[in-house]
Design a protein that fits this description.
The complex is a heterodimer. Chain A is globular. In chain A, the strands form 2 sheets. In chain A, strands 2, 4, 5, 9, 10 and 11 form a 6-stranded mixed sheet that branches. In chain A, strands 1-3-8-7-6 form a 5-stranded antiparallel sheet, with no helix packed on it. By secondary structure, chain A is mostly beta strands. By secondary structure, chain B is mostly beta strands. In chain B, strand 7 and strand 8 form a beta hairpin. The radius of gyration of chain B is 13 Å and the shape is globular. Classes of the chains: A mainly beta, B mainly beta. At the A-B interface, strand 5 and strand 9 of A face strand 5, strand 9 and strand 10 of B.
Chain lengths: 112, 113
């Protein structure tokens, strides 16, 4: 059962454009939503995270938008650069619960 | 600061051979530990997680097993590898007291031939 649905699975964006990755969750007990960035041959690394008590969090060119009522959250990458080309995973977890649930991942390619 | 070490980085093993992948975490105590597998172009599949020494939960029935002989050591094993065991294996940890994000090792690329 996929508890966190992520789309699209692949995305091609031109340099300078906006990359948008969407995730939806089912379990309303989730209370922490991290995003991970993974380069080929490497482990995923935490990129940015949000809690459901805020609707938006911005760090540099990366912004998470969170819609609690719709049970959706998204990652926006502004002014996308070729160095942003990677696989991005959204995730969700519950305080005090051992497992982090990941989305299927989005392979982003930023072309010059 | 906390660090996670996973080795080896790459491994080529024949079908039917045993497997042992090791992961250690430094700079924290009583972490939650995880083994994930990532097939080519696919998402992260949770294989095992552990909340303490000797405590292993299996997520997916398979040819693999996990053990946690020490607080910060997590081992993934197989007695006889199958071709389908090929993949990218990732160890991860999260704080035991407050589970937020997971921190990943650099991964092991396993090719079973």
């Amino acid at each position: 059962q996929q508890q966190v649905k992520q789309s699209p699975q692949s995305l091609i964006v031109q340099k300078g454009g906006i990359s948008i990755i969407n995730c939806a969750y089912e379990n309303t007990a989730f209370d922490y939503f991290p995003w991970y960035q993974q380069f080929p041959g490497k482990g995923p690394a935490l990129l940015i995270a949000i809690r459901p008590d805020v609707s938006e969090k911005k760090e540099g060119r990366f912004t998470i938008s969170f819609n609690k009522s719709a049970k959706q959250f998204s990652l926006h990458i502004m002014d996308s650069q070729p160095g942003d080309s990677a696989t991005y995973f959204c995730a969700a977890s519950i305080h005090g619960y051992q497992k982090v649930t990941f989305g299927i991942g989005t392979k982003l390619q930023v072309i010059p | 600061s906390q660090t996670i070490h996973q080795w080896p980085a790459t491994l080529v093993q024949p079908v039917g051979s045993p497997l042992s992948l090791e992961c250690t975490v430094e700079g924290t105590s009583n972490p939650n530990l995880y083994w994930y597998r990532q097939a080519a172009g696919r998402g992260l599949q949770l294989l095992f997680y552990s909340v303490g020494i000797g405590q292993i939960s299996s997520e997916v029935p398979q040819n693999l097993s996990a053990s946690r002989p020490q607080d910060r050591q997590f081992i993934l094993s197989s007695k006889k590898l199958l071709l389908s065991d090929s993949g990218f294996y990732l160890c991860a940890w999260s704080p035991g007291t407050q589970n937020t994000e997971a921190f990943f090792g650099q991964g092991t690329r396993l090719t079973v031939v």
